[in-house]
# Entry
Amino acid sequence: MKQILLVDILAILKNSETIYLYESPNHSIGSFCVDRLLAYFSDAAILNREVQLIETTASGLICITLKSDKEKEK
# Structure
């Protein structure tokens, strides 16, 4: 199965879209506008992290949980 990377998801969202980024379901990295996230992490490995879960809330918020390094090894 093809890996879905954070940078792939960001490429299809609007630059002004706000996402909520999680390291795990219980550990929030923060909320970011797509354009600012791309600029802030432009050369960081976080953009190449695999996505575990993408959720939207009833109010339209986008929540992205990244796959942990431990899960990648499985």
Q: What stands out?
A: The chain is about 25% helix and 35% strand. The chain has a mean pLDDT of 89. Residues 22 and 28 are 4 Å apart (CA to CA). The longest helix spans residues 6-12.
